[in-house]
Amino acid sequence: MINTLTLNQRRAQSGFSLMEILIVLVIIGTIMGLVVQQVFNKGDAANIKAANIQIENIKGAIELYELNMGRLPTTEEGLNALIEKPSSAEEATEWVGGGGPFLKSMPTDPFRKQPYKYELNQSGEPPYYLWTEGKPGKPETRIGILPPQG
User: pTM surpassing 0.90?
Assistant: First the structure.
């Protein structure tokens, strides 16, 4: 009888208490939260790098456009001027003869999957603004040749 009682006592003592299980779950949750946060921050860094590369490509296309057309695209024409033939016959001839289209397709910004913003600067330097608004709620991801905020 003594052996049986001792065996039952051991069974009651083996295993984890509810408090121990909850503490372990809180620790695991905290670790997972930190890991997920790091993964999302790496995603922003990759998107920033991709946006910078795309902006550099678009800037190169704008420079080619300016060399061949003798002017920058207007704000109204926007970046579509780099991929769409102008409607005027004279400009269409220069555009095609100058190597247009200057981009095969228009890249979209990696944050919002929308076209990059372009605006001709009428007041001097820089000659134009080219940017992405970045990730909503994260102003540090707004990059490019930025217009003045005001």
Answer: no
Please state whether 140 falls in left (phi above 0), alpha (psi between -120 and 50) or beta: alpha
pLDDT in tens, 34-77: 777 666 666 788 889 999 999 999 999 999 999 989 999 999 99
Residue 24: strand, helix, or coil: helix
Give domain 51-150's CATH number out of 3.30.70.20, 3.40.50.300, 3.30.700.10, 3.10.420.10. 3.30.700.10
Q: Which tokens hold the place of 126?
A: 């820089």
* Residue 133, CA distances (Å) to 12, 38, 58, 77, 136 in order: 61, 22, 16, 20, 8
